[in-house]
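Database export, one record per block. Field names are fixed; values are copied verbatim from the stored entry.
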Amino acid sequence: MSSGAFKSIAIAGAWGYIGRKFLDAARSLGLHCAVYDPGPAPDDLPPDAVQRLDSAEDFLRQRADLFHLALHPEDRRWALQGLLSRGRSESACILCEKPMASPDRPEDCQQVLSAVGQSQAVVLYDFPELYDPITRRIAAVLTGGKQVSIDSIYLQRSKDREDPAKPRNYKRMVHIQYQESVHCLAFALYLLALVRGGYEAVFADGFAIEARTEPYLAPNPCDYQTVPDGKVEYAARLGATTIVGRTDFKRGAPEAKLRIVRGSVDGEPLYIEADYQEGRKRLIINGRHYAELTQTNSYAEVIRTIERWRAELPPGELMGGLYPNPTFAHITYRLSTALFLASRSAELLRIASLDELLGLRSSASSTTHTSGSG
């Protein structure tokens, strides 16, 4: 456990979309912000708003309460490895973006797990819904009864990622199963592990999934060697729970981060509807609206929640319990792999256990979609 509130954050990749969101959130919370990003600073950022770091070495030498690695997996290795090496003698707190590894480098997951195991650092992954007060309320309901069952979960995450008029759409993306569906799969995994008492129990009766996909039509096709998937619809079964999902980056897709959970608590029906979309969040549980939990900034809540966890929980519990730690991120990565494989096979994919899931491999760099740009 740490003492006191967070006073500082160091961000690598601060000028990217997610990095800037966390930078603005950290500034709103009054944190001292040190940033490393070789690119030009945004025009709307006051010159004295941040401490600009000149090199990667300067970033790794920082003494910050929280390090945020707002970097793609292939660009993240130097920062994570450097901080974990430092963490052999001190307990740094590190927030990484997802996915845990590039789709075509699943072996990196085990390397991260091994390095984390030799470090005192606390490493968490940015699944924003799991840090949100909405999810805390849902968890309280699910753990408040003696007999709880989840019959079905509906997962939707969508936005228009093809519109050439939106500057963010020119940022390169990977297959949607790893980039976006992983958030949905993380939400389902968290709830089921919470109710069933752990990851092994979630997969005790096996896992089956089928899916279909459509290609992503990027506004900048020349930046892609292969065409990633841009939409996936899937149906899965985890024990007694049915999961239906839709992740859509196609032109005209609505902005939504919708979750619907149906089940029962102590024999009484349970219906939960939650939308985590920034600016219009909502939570309804059995007809009751929880407006007081929806007026929040998701990025600020991630920082606040990590701060609270660090103050209240020993590092061993954060790294070994049901939190968005490397073990959790590894399972979500393999769930993304299962979804990708099901998308490609057009057949029902069956997985017997958690161990079998963790052994899944795919050549996610290959694709049946071919780029017309050459």
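Remark 1: Confidence is low (pLDDT under 50) at residues 365-374.
Remark 2: The two ends are 53 Å apart (CA to CA).
End of record.
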